Amino acid sequence: xxxxxxxxxxxxxxxxxxxxxxxxxxxxxxxxxxxxxxxxxxxxxxxxxxxxxxxxxxxxxxxxxxxxxxxxxxxxxxxxxxxxxxxxxxxxxxxxxxxxxxxxxxxxxxxxxxxxxxxxxxxxxxxxxxxxxxxxxx
Length: 138
Description:
Blueprint: H1 5-17, H2 23-39, H3 53-68, H4 72-78, H5 84-96, H6 117-121
């Protein structure tokens, strides 16, 4: 859960009317934005602080894998997140709640061109098994 009481209060207010995503999804997004800003070496303040959608999506993916490993796919789905557009929905819900800020060029639709969830969260953990060769009968 967030250490920021204003963020917690905003999420609790959002959850009064918005039921698509679990509370954990919003708290995860807060952490993912911080992670992404650090990963892409964004300044602490000013116009250079803004993350592009592609930076944010990549940061979210990396953060989910770092936090939840092979369980990331299941955890995100349990929270109501099934595709990168859901990340955008959460971001824009937080923007509308005045918790996150947006640039005029930011568009929800840009989140729909992210990555395939199964490929991003399941493929890294798939194990290729080598099957024994069948013996030939003489």
